Amino acid sequence: MGNTIHDGRIIHIDQLRGIALLLMILVHAAATWKPSQLHQEHVLAIFVASLGGLAAPLFIFIFGWGIGRSKNTSFQKNIIRGLVLFFAQFLVNLTVPHLFHPFSPGVLTLIALLYFFAPIWLYTINLSFKNIPLWPVICCILLFTPMFITLPDATWSQRTIPAGVVSWLHLAIFSGTYPILPWLIFAIIGGCVAQEKTSKINRNYVILSGLILSLCFFIYALHFGKTYALPSGEAVLTFFPANVPFLISSLTGIGLLWVLVLKIPEFTGLINLGRFTLTYYIIHFLPFRFWHDIDEKHTWSMPVSFSVIIIYTILFWPLSLLHHRVAPNYSLEAWMKRLSSRQ
What we know:
- By secondary structure, this protein is mainly α.
- The chain is built from 19 helices and six strands.
- Helices cover 68% and strands 3% of the residues.
């Protein structure tokens, strides 16, 4: 099953990474080539947004798991990997200038900063008071930070365009698209899982509790006539900024995926996708630069739009198989590994 190890890599984790990548591609393609007839409150739009909303939290959780599990990673290696991710974020920003400023902090910036500050947040995982672990308290604080520090009415420009160094830091830590607060919660919980801090917690009860809360959010939206989920705006769950219901639902979704992927068979395509996530994350933006408005120019119908979105997403599955067979050592991941191994 997915818990085996191959070539020094855990299959379960690579499959989770592959799923996260496909979800990320799906939601970005859907946002770019969304049918004009499909409004944000449509059930399909909400379904795609809900699925795609799991991608980034899952990436950060897996990152935290990897850092938490590492025993010999030096500070110098983390700095090099973080700098590579800063460069990768810059490439992404240049690839889609209609979405980002060249120096917009994004999800890769978040991971880079988590690399830089890994010794600090990993230390918090092991804090205790009178033999009582404090990481649950820290996670609760992070969970509710959106209620105090986010700007729910900020425009996309306000979330992505820094006016200077201080503004950039504010976006990266508090008010950007993927700020450290509250997104650090996913890395900390991933690290806790890796270090078996959660071993005494009944996983099924936690997931069930999350499902009940998520169902309550949905019922609340139905009862009061509110939109259930939107990337941003007036909705019960919002991604920009990540609000409390979104964080709870995402953590629940991660728990479900973690359990499910342990039980599914090994899919070579998913495994290979998981090995090239950074490379494909950058590559998948390229068509959006040149054809981000093609659906509007040709007035695509809903079936055409959905066909293009699904085909484009699935295309990366065979691409990963070919990539792994022909040139497995040519990727940003391999480059990062070579750079950091010199230390």
